[in-house]
Amino acid sequence: MKLNNLKVALVHDWLTGMRGGEKVLEAICEIFTEADLYTLVYIPNSVSKIIQNRRIYTSFIQKLPDVEKNYRYFLPLMPLAISQFDLSNYDLVISSSHCVAKGVKVGKTTLHICYCHTPMRYIWDMYELYFGSASNTSVLVKLIMKILRKPLQIWDIKTAQNVDFFISNSNNVKERIKRIYNRDAVVIYPPVDVNFFSLSTPLNYDCLNINNYYLVVSAFAPYKKIDIVIEAFKKLKRNLKIVGCGQQEKYLKSLAEGFKNIEFLGWLDNEKLRCLYQHAKALIFPTEEDFGIVPVEAQAAGVPVIAYRKGGVLETVTEETGVFFDNQTPEDIIEAVLKFENLSFDPKKIKQQALKFSKERFIKEFKEFIQHL
Fold first, then answer.
1. Whole-number Å distance between alpha carbons of 280 and 350
2. pTM value?
């Protein structure tokens, strides 16, 4: 398929911040510079200029009360909302989906490619973490999700059959797509701006008032497991800086209350984040992630990673670039940190590992995939 003169639509679940999925979307926007963009919810100025300069079309969920803070609670309405976009006049639809975006309706002659970050984690592999008895979700939400889980699963599987081709962000997610949807997928790793994070930067930010620190960079969602890092560093007494924000912010800060070695910095711009990466002792990554862009950014800065041995990180971090731990517990993190402190790592080899996941490589592979259809 030739890319010229195609009428293209991009679909993304929601535009409320620049995380991994939005960085993938940004790179796709650079390939299809005239594409329209459809999303359930858009918070102005929450994403990059490359994305927000698009013609952005939102769903009826955009008009619901307090949607900017509570859009996740409208999950039961999302399948209906995404299906009301009429994309039948487009030649090519590319959905960037970790929730419902792939469920968009397209025309009979429209080619639909889904870049799948993961099948919907809240109703599949991580349901218990979000809505199980041990989660801190309200009883009402747990009850609603118990009722809705099966219908959402049925909808999720059904709409997967309306996708012509799946692209997965890792072999980890490829296996999940096969297991849940019974569909094959081609792996194209997400784009990481490795060149930006490898550039040297002066140590001149207020947030770097302590040089001898470990680093966490993450959204504050339940499955990210930032709580176990906090508990570990309360015992380790090492300095820990945490970059991020999200639904668990109040809870996580309460865990660290009174411990001056643990510092919350909020969500930072990329230049400050780069400086933080470059001067950290190591990145702590306690998450089972679909792919995980953060460990690649850290490695691009020459920083080793201490990671949970599961998920996409097994495709991005090696024994030469980091240390793994096997259980998501404070004790395992403590053991891994102590092991790390007795090892040495070569920043050049760490940076070399990150180059495999460059933005240029993503754009090249994505274009080639479509051109060969």
1. 14
2. 0.86
